[in-house]
Amino acid sequence: MTVHANPVQAGLPIVDFSRFHGSDGERAAFVAELRAILHDHGFFYLTGHGVDPKLIQDVVSTAKRFFALPLEQKLEIEMVKSPHFRGYNRAGRERTRGEQDWREQLDINTEGEAVEIGPETQPWKRLLGPNQWPDALPELKPLLLAYQAEVTRVGIDVLKAIAVALGQPENAFAEIYEPQPSQLLKIIRYPGRDVAETDQGVGAHKDGGFVTVLLQDVIPGLRVRTEEGVWIDAPPVPGTFVINTGELLELATNGYVRADVHDVVAPPAGAERFSVAFFLGSRYDATIPVIELPEDLKRAERGISVDPLNPIFREVGQNHLKSRLRSHPDVALAHHRDLLTPEQRAAAAAGEAGSAY
Ligand SMILES: O=C(O)CCC(=O)C(=O)O
Ligand SMILES: [Fe+2]
């Protein structure tokens, strides 16, 4: 694989998206490179994405001001107050495979109205509803919604390039993300190891959707596990996003596309790490299709390995709801007891269930 000017030696490749819109030759080279990356890792740095650096700077600085608010102001919008899994979580509240993640975060999603839930309503409709915003920082809402719109555009652009790399028409995935893809935006703060009770910023996991668009501030911590089981560091590279594919693409391509496992180690004592993660998925009412790949790619399909601890459904809304119920047992108990089995209720009450995302 040819890797473009890559300052991260032996690390993840850096890809310039403007080449997708360049000359025919540039586009073909870009698409071939992307295809190899999708198959090897599903992880890369993206430049040439067109997001205004000023917007990025404002999002990061305002996110830092949010986390610097007094705890009681952040708790005014604690996630447990939202049946739709929106809002703030203190560090230690989220779990990945039963182990505590050590990060605080604010979760935003598509801004919308709650749906009245009756016995016939599909359970995933509980995910729809308004976000919670801090009164103390009114500028956060317009900023994060503007940013969410921008990273949605980037995610969809990348998805079009992915479709082409897989030998499909650019709009191959449009029928499962139009008119409203699922959006989940998290601003995240990882406290240093002097404060964190474990080294686990977030435990090893795969993301769930189409693609994740990750903005890292300046402190490293993200690591990616290759197919051979080697962990590679993915430190921040200024001006880039880290893009990674999610399980949806693994499923849709019968494992041709890889969604590498990754984690975040807590920053050193005295440091704190900030990131902004955006997860783009298909419509909640979509079913993940299996894409017929060209013969040469088909031969390289790996198949899908099923994780018994975290089964994945082709019904997207059901899948999202499952992840959210597992990651946030307090919300599950407060608002969705009726969806839990007695075992899940007991595990949630003991704070045992959970996974990232
Ligand atoms: O904070 C990061 O850099 C990555 C977070 C992540 O992998 C996730 O939230 O799924
Ligand atoms: Fe992740």
TrEMBL record:
It catalyses: 2-oxoglutarate + O2 + 2 H(+) = ethene + 3 CO2 + H2O; L-arginine + 2-oxoglutarate + O2 = guanidine + L-glutamate 5-semialdehyde + succinate + CO2. PROSITE patterns: FE2OG_OXY. Its cofactor is Fe(2+). Coiled coil: none annotated. Its EC number is 1.13.12.19, 1.14.20.7. It holds the Pfam family DIOX_N. One of its GO terms (biological process) is ethylene biosynthetic process. Pathway: Alkene biosynthesis; ethylene biosynthesis via 2-oxoglutarate. Keywords: Dioxygenase, Ethylene biosynthesis, Iron, Metal-binding, Oxidoreductase. SUPFAM superfamilies: Clavaminate synthase-like. One of its GO terms (molecular function) is metal ion binding. InterPro entries: DIOX_N (IPR026992), IPNS-like_FE2OG_OXY (IPR044861), IPNS-like_sf (IPR027443), Iron_ascorbate_oxido_reductase (IPR050231), Oxoglu/Fe-dep_dioxygenase_dom (IPR005123). Residues 180-282 form the Fe2OG dioxygenase domain. It comes from the Bacteria. Belongs to the iron/ascorbate-dependent oxidoreductase family. This is 2-oxoglutarate-dependent ethylene/succinate-forming enzyme.
